[in-house]
Amino acid sequence: MNEATNVGGGLGLELISFRIGSQEFCVDIMTVREIRGWTAATALPQAPDYVRGVVNLRGAVLPIVDLSSRLGFARAEPTARHVIIVTQIQSQLVGLLVDAVSDILTVTDDMIQPTPDVASEMVKNFVRGIMAIDGRMVSLLALDRILPDLQAEAA
To answer: What DSSP string describes the chain?
Structure first.
């Protein structure tokens, strides 16, 4: 779709954007392995509220995180329109349940603004920066900060 462009002297960073409710977020496209339609997950006992459970991904167990719930919004009620973004976080594959994938964005570092100081510490932990793109605000998520406890539980 968009190719990396040399804008403002910096090479473009490719991001995949997605919606959760009326908000738009994005992650580095290099962390995304695939995008799948919603599949009901098998619940895990004693899992955090934002972990929907696990699904079978070609013989591998894939934990599914309700990103809406993890970010402090209402728990998602998945429909056939919801998607799972399969991401590589450190050494683990994790599925992120989102409302829909929006776009592939190419941005430069100077387009990414710091998270405002008025944001809560939780938001600052999860959001690496915010961009104004085509009249909409898109938050860049720090995947490594969203799921630190999954790494410990998986060990």
So the answer is: -PPP-EETTEE-EEEEEEEETTEEEEEEGGGEEEEEE--PPBP-TT--TTEEEEEEETTEEEEEEEHHHHTTSPPP---TT-EEEEEEETTEEEEEEESEEEEEEEE-GGG-BPPPTTS-HHHHHHEEEEEEETTEEEEEE-HHHH-HHHHHHH-
Question: Which structure tokens are listed for 140?
Answer: 């860049």
Average pLDDT, the chain: 86
Asked if 67 and 96 touch (Cβ cutoff 8 Å), the reply is yes
The distance in angstroms from the start CA to the end CA of the chain is 38
For the CA atoms of 63, 94, 145, 125, what is the dihedral angle to 10 degrees? Answer: -80
Contact 17, 130 (CB under 8 A): no
pTM: predicted TM-score of the whole model, two decimal places:
0.85
